[in-house]
Amino acid sequence: MSFPGAVPPPDDSTDAGVAWHYGDPFAEQRSAARSVVVVDRSNRGIIAVPGEDRLTWLHQLTSQHFELLGEDAGTEALILDAQGRLEHHMVVANVGGTVFLDVEKVDDLLAYLKKMVFWSKVEPRDATAELALLTVVGPDAVAVLEKLDLPVPADVVALGEGFVRRRSWPGQSSFDLLVPRAELASWWQRLTDAGARPAGSFAFEALRVESLRPRPGIDTDERTIPHEVNLIESSVHLNKGCYRGQETVAKVHNVGRPPRRMLLLHLDGSADGQPETGDPVELDGRVVGRVGSVVQHHELGPIALALVKRSVPVESELVAGAGERQVAARIDPDSVPADTPGLGREAVRNLRG
Which residue intervals define the domain GCVT N-terminal in the entry (predicted)? Predict the structure, then answer.
């Protein structure tokens, strides 16, 4: 928040401590789509896991196949409860003999990891005070990195004590830089001097919602399973060995279907209010879903992610919000995910046929 022009977020924002915007959040979104921006995401938690057993240990605890993760490689992973419900999501980088976990919140996850160490040769610690995250987004992101003589990785590459990591979203050209927190201001200056426009969480969240990427605790609730929020492809290895919650993951993937789907809703922009996280989504007066992230997009207008019962027809005329926040809403058909393969269902049909 010490960067020039930074406007602080509202008091109830989940992104306290970083800039909401720098004077024109819609222009910041346009720059991310057409040129390049840099976003201060130093409010993200960082857990470092050094130790020779780090990959086999994390393999046992998470949904991801860490034993196949090489050096200078990244992925995403989940920790689920025994019923397969989402507890933690982490963005992963294995670099320099340490696995770094980029997470929404550190405390509960770190406590769980420390509890599970036993005799493994690992030393998980909170590295948030040591390292900070910056994200460079836009078609000119590569040019900015090259101008600063920084590596342009296909996956992850070491950068001093941290790394540069290619992101799969938003857009086709996005990178994370994990830098020493003590050098955060100097890195920000270098990136903006190289041509990256400062952008805040307002813009980044709009791009995240457009990309159909869930944020734990906002787009998820206590019942959410990975299939409902598009996390199977990025965060779950379907052929690895046993981990907590695996039975639910396999059953839904092969036999069942998730009871809800995370969808993009287009909201009525002419209304005075807008729904908030946790508000209901209704069809003909019946609750059929839950509102997650609500943002203002530079092209799409007011949009939201919502967990909606899979039985709700895509063409339905919905109402999102509560009380004076109720607005008309419609489902973006392009946000409807493909069904799980249902290999078990197909096998049963073949037997009956």
Answer: 27-231
